[in-house]
Design a protein that fits this description.
The protein has helices at about 15-30, 45-50, 55-65, 80-85, 95-105, 185-200, 215-240, 250-260, 270-285, 310-315, 325-345, 345-365, 370-375, 385-400; strands spanning about 5, 10-15, 35, 40-45, 70, 105-110, 130, 140-145, 150-155, 165-170, 175-180, 205-210, 245-250, 265, 290-295, 300-305, 370, 385. It is an alpha/beta fold. The chain folds into 3 domains: about 1-110 and about 300-403, Isopropylmalate Dehydrogenase; about 120-140 and about 180-285, Isopropylmalate Dehydrogenase (3-Layer(aba) Sandwich), CATH 3.40.718; about 140-180, no CATH class. It has a 10-stranded mixed sheet with strand order 4-2-5-16-15-6-7-14-12-13, sandwiched between helices. Bound molecules: NADP nicotinamide-adenine-dinucleotide phosphate and magnesium ion.
Length: about 400
């Protein structure tokens, strides 16, 4: 079989623990036999991050900006225990946080649907994608525990000396206070990433805030989205036959619950945090979610939504059998290869990605799956496979599809 040729390399960000093991298996069994793979390789494994004082993470994010498409393996975000375990020089920051800050993006997460695993919400027939703004609000707040009676005020002092003051509350006893912020530039990036992603997917975009209550803060989000939609995206949306729809967050929740799915729901930072966990658990499993970071200038980083599956890795190290779900990591590869194919005009690469995803889904629907899915699947003829045998079953299915 002739292997598919690539033009531009993918940025390959290798990672840690069980997902690093899966990464190698996926490349060997599902990618390299079919594609003359070109990648610029960055080892984000914790040991190498430590050796390079985390420079490798920064370099990989800059490479993603330069080349446009990256695929990332799950990585350890060190805590105190990891500093001891890996004898680290420092408690390095979360690689995802570093990459997000450099690429300035929005994270889009969607469930992968298969027969036999039914969403908890019965009317959901198509995936619901959450687009979460990843800057500011309550995640960068300032808080005060108010000790007793007194007046609380919000004060802005401009560089030119302008003062804007707003009374918050006059306390008669103890209480709590919180101040938070966001930036027009960040909200604009978020809006553009969402509109572009909706065009890419050919799906409607919903956006929700609480602008009736928050008449300046949330209303600014609403206004910025509206302005960018009208001036930059309305014509493109109409051409594609998709819509942009704004509604209040509580109305959005009610509509989502009664919907069939098949749209993108843009959420402010906190709403996105809460709603993405609700959506992923209602659809089944974190190992059945795709996740992609899209920058406002159209650069993409594909990853799995779950972590490095540490518990399985320790079993693997002891030589015990593991049944770790590789679906999200396979879809990170196919997502990246499909996007590379689109950008470079290589149709075979796009067809390859679609067929490989089809092979994954058909493998599971034929009853062959890892343990995590066997626990929630309603199929009757289930065969639980180990990590490696699942990937091999996908390869066999792929070969059957292309034969
Ligand atoms: P995790 O790796 O997501 O795993 C938590 C548990 O969820 C696993 O023990 C397993 O349950 C189940 N699970 C997750 N992914 C699975 C898969 N693909 N197949 C089967 N089961 C799966 O989270 P964690 O153990 O809390 O974190 C481990 C490391 O990952 C941490 O160092 C953290 O910093 C890192 N992390 C990285 C990312 C990222 O790079 N995107 C995201 C989150 C966490 P059972 O044990 O019950 O089988
Ligand atoms: Mg969360």
């Amino acid at each position: 079989m002739d292997r598919i040729q690539m033009k531009t390399p993918l940025v390959e960000m290798d990672g840690d623990e069980m997902t690093r093991i899966l990464w190698k298996m996926i490349k060997e069994e599902l990618i390299l036999p079919f594609i003359d793979l070109k990648t610029e390789y960055y080892d984000l494994g914790l040991e190498h991050r430590d050796e390079t004082n985390d420079q490798v993470t920064i370099d990989s994010a800059n490479a993603a900006k330069r080349l446009g498409v990256a695929v990332k393996c799950a990585t350890i975000t060190p805590n105190a225990a990891r500093v001891t375990e890996y004898d680290l020089k420092e408690m390095w920051k979360s690689p995802n946080g570093t990459i997000r800050a450099i690429m300035d993006g929005t994270v889009f997460r969607s469930p992968i649907l298969v027969k036999g695993i039914r969403p908890q919400v019965r009317c959901w027939k198509k995936p619901i994608t959450i687009a979460r703004h990843a800057y500011g609000d309550v995640y960068k707040n300032a808080e005060i525990k108010v000790p007793g009676p007194g007046k609380a005020e919000l004060v802005f002092t401009g560089e030119d000396g302008t003062r804007i003051t707003e009374e918050i509350f006059t306390f008669k006893g103890p209480g709590v206070l919180q101040g938070m912020h966001n930036l027009n530039a960040s909200i604009e990036s978020f809006a553009r990433s969402c509109f572009r992603f909706a065009l890419d997917q050919g799906q409607d975009l919903w956006f929700s805030t609480k602008d009736t209550i928050s008449k300046k803060y949330d209303h600014t989000f609403k206004d910025i989205f509206e302005e960018i939609y009208e001036t930059e995206f309305r014509a493109l949306f109409e051409e594609k036959g998709i819509t942009y729809f704004y509604t209040l967050i509580d109305d959005a929740v009610a509509r989502v619950m009664k919907s069939e799915g098949g749209f993108i729901w843009a959420c402010k930072n906190y709403d996105g945090d809460v709603m993405s966990d609700m959506i992923s658990s209602a659809f089944g499993s974190l190992a059945m979610m795709t996740s992609v970071l899209v920058s406002p200038d159209g650069k993409y980083e594909y990853e799995a939504a779950h972590g490095t599956v540490q518990r399985h890795y320790y079993k693997y190290l002891k030589g015990e059998e593991t049944s770790t779900n590789s679906v999200a990591t396979i879809f990170a590869w196919t997502g990246a290869l499909r996007k590379r194919g689109e950008l470079d005009g290589i149709e075979e690469l796009q067809i390859f990605a679609n067929r490989m995803e089809q092979a994954v889904i058909e493998t599971i629907e034929s009853g062959k799956m890892t343990k995590d899915l066997a626990l929630i699947s309603e199929l009757e003829n289930i065969q639980v496979l180990n990590s490696e045998d699942f990937i091999k079953a996908v390869r066999d299915r792929y070969l059957f599809l292309v034969a």
